[in-house]
From TrEMBL:
It comes from the Bacteria. The lineage of its organism: Bacteria, Bacillati, Bacillota, Clostridia, Eubacteriales. Residues 272-423 form the Lactate racemase C-terminal domain. It comes from Acetobacterium fimetarium. InterPro entries: LarA-like, LarA-like_C, LarA-like_N, LarA_C, Ni_dep_LarA. This is Nickel-dependent lactate racemase. PANTHER family: LAR_N DOMAIN-CONTAINING PROTEIN, LARA-LIKE N-TERMINAL DOMAIN-CONTAINING PROTEIN. Coiled coil: none annotated. Residues 8-213 form the LarA-like N-terminal domain.
Amino acid sequence: MMKISLPYGQEKQSVDLDESILNGILVSQIEAYDPGKSQTELVKEALINPIDSQRLKDLAQGKNKVVIIASDHTRPVPSKIIMPLMLKEIREGNPDADITILIATGFHRLTTRAEMVSKFGEAIVDQEKIVVHDSGAEESLVKIGTLPSGGDLIINRLAQEADLLVSEGFIEPHFFAGFSGGRKSVLPGIASRVTVLANHCGEFIAHPKARTGSIAGNPLHIDMLYAAKAGKLAFVVNVVINSEKEVIHAVAGDCANAHAKGCEFLKSLCRVKAQPSDIVITSNGGYPLDQNIYQAVKGMTAAEAAVKPGGVIIMVAKSNDGHGGESFFNTFKEEKNLKNMSKRFEKTPKNETIPDQWEAQILARILLKARVIYISEAPDAMIREFQMTPAENLTDAVSLAREYLNNDQARITAIPDGVAVIVE
């Protein structure tokens, strides 16, 4: 027997499986990678050697209003390491800089003070100016152009009025933008809900290039990169992290080219070959990425790439915050026919995209391929509204999957962290 453990919140869910029915365990090589340097050293080196850019301290010279875009509470960015180094570098170049940290909530709920303290530490929260972006607060937004796709490009006014706009972030595989990080700080990070909806339209989500690890020809990425450049995002600090949320690689510099270098590094470690199976077990990488069902759809896409049609996906995601999106939940509550749901979304014009449509569209696509058993702390009734089956633990879920398939010897693939791999 082999014990398979998956992250669940800040704990683990485990199951013992007979090795004879285990097709494979798909993990990235990130865990085996040893950078040979501390996390702080890696970020410092990136700042000292920016890609296709001046150093941040040089860019800051003569710039009075400086805005640093920071990821929100749903992203495990090691800001306690990155942010102090960025602040120090900016103030070396301009001791009098008026710095604002702008929390990029995108379409998520607003970040709480407690979450900011957890992210940055008490000192930064108490001493720095921090503003939480609200994508629906029209008075704090300004239109700066039109996206290649035709949607209005509207971003946070603080960013638009900044003399220098920079960002921190991390790079991971992303289920429709290809990779997180870089340009995503602006769109969706600090964009208006109108802009996010246009970018996340049904046509783009259905595009064959809008997949994990895919940037070239990806229409969402094209819009996002345009938004970052139009918003004058001058400098990024992006890191790659392991399962312990520790920095193993860092890049800094030009928002497009530094990010591309980071993506290349990550892709070299996290590509895995699918081992098609009747049952695929996966997670969303634990806290903070598995706080709700909405976010957990990301990890499910890794299982989608590995499960056989008609098979079963077992998803482990604590989801202590519930569904994560009212519109996302209501879509499934009101429409029970998944094919009709998918067709409607694909035909919906860009300017009529509804909130969370993209997440519902992708979950419907997954459910049309395989049944999903969902292990979480969310109410069972809520799980069932999403046409998934609730389970208390992995052992029960595996037994239930075998019952559904009527096969005690069903082959199993495990993907311990579904958001950490690109399944090809």
